[in-house]
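$ run holo --ligand "6-O-phosphono-alpha-D-glucopyranose" --emit tokens
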Amino acid sequence: MYKEPFGVKLDFETGIIENAKKLVRKLSDMKGYFLDEQAWKELVEKEDPVVYEVYAIEQEEKDGDLNFATTVLYPGKVGKEFFFTKGHYHAKADRAEIYFALKGRGGMLLQTPEGKAKFIEMVPGTVVYVPPYWAHRTVNTGNEPFIFLAVYPADAGHDYGTIKEKGFSKIVVEEDGKVVVKDNPKWKE
Ligand SMILES: O=P(O)(O)OC[C@H]1O[C@H](O)[C@H](O)[C@@H](O)[C@@H]1O
Ligand SMILES: [Fe+2]
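-- output --
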């Protein structure tokens, strides 16, 4: 009837949560995600770097329960575009989420199904509220790992398909040493 409460240790330096399930995404797992396909191919052939790791503590997909996870998003670029997470809508689209930045610097790209986008900068201490229905992707705009914690409903699920096909309407790139958020020339409505 009652589940057992627990506390776990989250290491703020490494992002590792003890006893968590670890997921690793390499650049080769992200075919079609970056704008510069040639730069993607070259980097995959050269070293196929790990783009990010997720340490998740997840419950059964039940309404009312909560999951939480840290993400360690490594610094790097594909062409001019900074490394990012795949990004997703929630399978149950009306589920919200909270992100809390722990280390490094970056930001979150959010987008409605109609393509209205927003970029929110994240530094240690920034808490981001992801409202229901908004897709979300994090971006590492710095030169050290960008680490954050996310808390989300256990029944939210991930819908990757829409973002995989259409991308986000904005991209985050480096131009003249600056972080620039601009329109994605490949964005399809
Ligand atoms: O699932 P991605 O879009 O690749 O993002 C990576 C991860 O970021 C956060 O930790 C979210 O809470 C996770 O649900 C998500 O899996
Ligand atoms: Fe999410």
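-- notes --
The chain has a mean pLDDT of 97.
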